[in-house]
C-alpha cells in the first residue's frame, strides 16, 4: 500500500479528518510558511489524534537542539528536514528522519546516491519557497529515484494527477499539502477525501 502523508496541517479538525479518511501520516510545519504552526498548538493536536498515525514535524535549517526539543515536546514520530542541512547536522540528530531533496534536474540523483538516506522526499525546486507551491517536477526523475530507496513524492500532487504520478514513479509514498486545500493551511474535505480515494483505488487495482 502506498503511504499517504497529508502535510501543512494547522488545526485539529483537518488532522482528524485526514486520519479518519485513511492517511498514514500527518505533517506539521515548523519552518517559515503560511502553514507554520507553534509547538504548543501541535502538541494539543497530537494528544487528540489516534496513536497509530505517524506524526511528522517539518523543519528547515533549524538548530538541532531546537528540533530535538520540539520533537519530544510535541510527541512527534519523525522529523522531516526540508532545508539545506549538512551531513554533520544530520548525524547530530539521532531521530527518525526523512530527508528532502528539491528537484531542479536529474543531478539530484547523485546527491541521493551520495547521502544514502533511508527515506527521502522529492519536492519541486522553487527559488522563492521550500515547498507547498503546488508545482510538479519531472516524475521520470522520481521513478529513477525510487530505485535508490524509499522515495516519497511531493510537489503539485492532487486528486486529478496522483494516479499518473503513481504509475510513472511507483513511489513508496505520496505527500500532499496545497493540492487538498481550500486556502493555505485549511484543507478542503472533498479534495482530501478524493485524493486519498484515488491513491487507495490505484493500490487496489495494482495489488
Description of the molecule:
- The chain is α/β, with parallel strands linked by helices.
- 37% of the residues lie in helices and 22% in strands.
- It has eight helices and ten strands.
- The model has no long low-confidence stretch (mean pLDDT 94).
- The protein has one domain: Aldolase class I (TIM Barrel, Alpha-Beta Barrel), CATH 3.20.20.70.
- Strand 1, helix 1 and strand 2 form a beta-alpha-beta unit.
- The strands form two sheets. An eight-stranded parallel β-barrel has the order 1-2-3-4-5-6-7-8. It has a two-stranded antiparallel sheet with strand order 9-10.
- The protein is globular, with a radius of gyration of 16 Å.
Protein topology:
Blueprint: E1 3-6, H1 12-20, E2 25-29, H2 39-47, E3 54-59, H3 64-74, E4 78-81, H4 87-91, E5 97-103, H5 108-115, E6 119-124, H6 139-146, E7 150-153, H7 162-169, E8 173-176, E9 181-183, E10 186-187, H8 189-206
Parallel strand pairs: 1-2, 1-8, 2-3, 3-4, 4-5, 5-6, 6-7, 7-8
Antiparallel strand pairs: 9-10
Number of domains: 1
What is the architecture at the second tier of CATH?
A: Alpha-Beta Barrel
Cα-to-Cα separation, first versus last residue: 8 Å
How many helices? 8
Overall geometric form = globular
What is the helix content?
25-40%
Mean pLDDT: 94
> What is the CATH top level name?
Alpha Beta
Overall structural class, as computed from helix and strand content, comes to: alpha/beta
Largest sheet at a glance? 8 strands, parallel, barrel
Name given to the CATH homologous superfamily: Aldolase class I
Write down the CATH topology: TIM Barrel
The count of DSSP E runs of length 2 or more, i.e. the number of strands, is 10
Q: Main sheet: which strands, in order across?
A: 1-2-3-4-5-6-7-8
Q: Hey, roughly how much beta strand do the residues contain? A: 15-25%
Low-confidence stretches: none
**Elements, N to C (H/E):** EHEHEHEHEHEHEHEEEH
Computed Rg: 16 Å
Amino acid at each position: 500500500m502506498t503511504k499517504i502523508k497529508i502535510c501543512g496541517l494547522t488545526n485539529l479538525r483537518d488532522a482528524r479528518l485526514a486520519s479518519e479518511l485513511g492517511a498514514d501520516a500527518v505533517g506539521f510545519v515548523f519552518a517559515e510558511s503560511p502553514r507554520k504552526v507553534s509547538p504548543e498548538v501541535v502538541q494539543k493536536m497530537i494528544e487528540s489524534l489516534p496513536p497509530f498515525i505517524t506524526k511528522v514535524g517539518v523543519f528547515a535549517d533549524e538548530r538541532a537542539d531546537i528540533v530535538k526539543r520540539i520533537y519530544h515536546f510535541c510527541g512527534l514520530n519523525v522529523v522531516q528536514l526540508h532545508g539545506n542541512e549538512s551531513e554533520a547536522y544530520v548525524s547530530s540528530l539521532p531521530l527518525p528522519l526523512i530527508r528532502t531533496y528539491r528537484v531542479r534536474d536529474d543531478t539530484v540523483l547523485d546527491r541521493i546516491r551520495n547521502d544514502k538516506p533511508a527515506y527521502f522526499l522529492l519536492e519541486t525546486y522553487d527559488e522563492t519557497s521550500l515547498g507547498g507551491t503546488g508545482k510538479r517536477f519531472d516524475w521520470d526523475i522520481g521513478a529513477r529515484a525510487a530505485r535508490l530507496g524509499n522515495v516519497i513524492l511531493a510537489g503539485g500532487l492532487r486528486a486529478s494527477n496522483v494516479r499518473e504520478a503513481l504509475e510513472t514513479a511507483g513511489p513508496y509514498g505520496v505527500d500532499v499539502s496545497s493540492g487538498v486545500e481550500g486556502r493555505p493551511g485549511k484543507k478542503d474535505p472533498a479534495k482530501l477525501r478524493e485524493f486519498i480515494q484515488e491513491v487507495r483505488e490505484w493500490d487496489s487495482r495494482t495489488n
